[in-house]
Fold:
Amino acid sequence: MITDNSKLVEATRGLRGITFPRVSLYGFLVLSVVSWAYIIFGVDSGLGDLFTGRSWSNAGHFFSQLLGLEGGLTGGGRPAFFDLGRWGETGKLAYKTLMMSVLAIGLAGFGVLVTFLPAARNVSNGELGGSPSLALGVLYHVLRLFFAFTRAVPELIWAMVIVFFLSPGILPGAIALGLHNYGIVGKLSAEVVENMDPGPARALRSAGAGNIQMLAYGIIPQAMPHFLTYLLYRWEVVIRTTVVVGFVSAGGLGQEFRLNLSFFQYTDVFLIILWYLILVLAVDLLSAFLRRMVLVR
Amino acid sequence: MTWTNSPFRSLDARRLLSLVLIGAFVWSLSSVDWRGGIVHTGGGDALKDFPLALFPPELSPGFLKLGLIASWQTVVHAVAGITLAIIIGLPLGIIASGSLGKPGRVRMLVAAVMRFILAFMRSIHELIWAVLFVAAFGLSSLAAVLAIAIPYAGILGRIYSELLNDVSEGPLDGLRSAGASPAGVLIYGRMPMVLTDLLSYGFYRFECAIRAAAIMSFVGIRGLGFEIQLSLHDLKFAEVWTLLLFLFGLVLLVDYWSTSVRRSLNS
Structure:
């Protein structure tokens, strides 16, 4: 019998003895026990409610109202998702939501395109052309910090801040989504430049190419496909978040979702969830198709 | 440089795609309502005051203590959410990988159905799950934890099933020829081989769970997002900055932890 045990042994190696991952794992287990204890014994855990028949029958009512199986406070009537007119009205909002996601990705992409080069270490230290200077070094750190900060703050919190300045609509939502994704795509794109093959750029340099030519022929052609792929991937994530950002920025499906929920129009809520799933599916398919376009020449 | 090597040679797929994307962006700009100005009344002043409030942020001991407590509450929900996500995601992932049970149509069908369920779980954003749970069960920490756990279990389940399927068959054949059942192959073959990857991906998702827990403020769960919301409503921008920096620090810390764990697991 031939058994390749070495692979098994190798795979679990990191977890033997007192190693950092092992200590981390135990640390995390302790943290999770403490966290669960905090939540379960907390004032508003809701654990007690889980074992009462009332909260389950409430939940049952809620979900059957969502599906239009029983009339809610608004008193029966036809469920919104059997109403073509409602499909049309919410369809417009779905379109707005889609535009918000495109705008967000566009803003993030534009921002990244302008800033990703100085955020790559091998550009800022002059390895790929240009000449190193103190200003470039400072710019590198400032940009990396900015990427990390915009990335760390979730879209919804950006949206809460931005609605303080901008008129409600799809723009504040798009800016909030754009900021968060700017940090993510910016970091990834800068890393692409850092990890790329310096060969073409060096060859161009030795052939006497100027900085602009190096950029156009040595760097951009290598970085561009990665950049586009990241943007398309993020677009799939963004479309899932647009509805949530719409809660606060008052644009598209999100606002309607909130309004319907607070007026107990549950079949409308369900209709919006349907539109949301349609958007998610459509964007996933479209993005997969476009990403294949980037790969195949 | 000859013309054939020029990047402007032809309109190939990649350039076409770039043009399409730029077109879509411009098109999306047209759907913004530009009338009435993009900055609302009073927004201009806030726009000026907000960046200035960073110098300095609110640093009084009392507020720092509040920030720490809020960070702790966010961590608690994130940790509880991600552990529940792993507990749900692992068995679902194993089913979706189709590595349990006798090979055949039934197993394939069950795996396909499970993959669909996982896709559904992760396609709905955690906050929408939260809003639905709060509407159904009432506001509670558990609703928020469950809301984080469901989409994250969907993501983890999918990744776990892919990891379990991607192991090399050599050691598994060894186990099979020794007479191991599919469950035995899973427990003694597939699982040990992917264990580090499972942990490593779980840790990676932990960082995202921190952000997810922070926005649970929207359904009324206490934590950093909740305090940010309160300070914003009081127009105390210096406090907002302090809390944003707490969130930044927290994410950096978890990011550093998870990167170090993954690096030492994969080295």
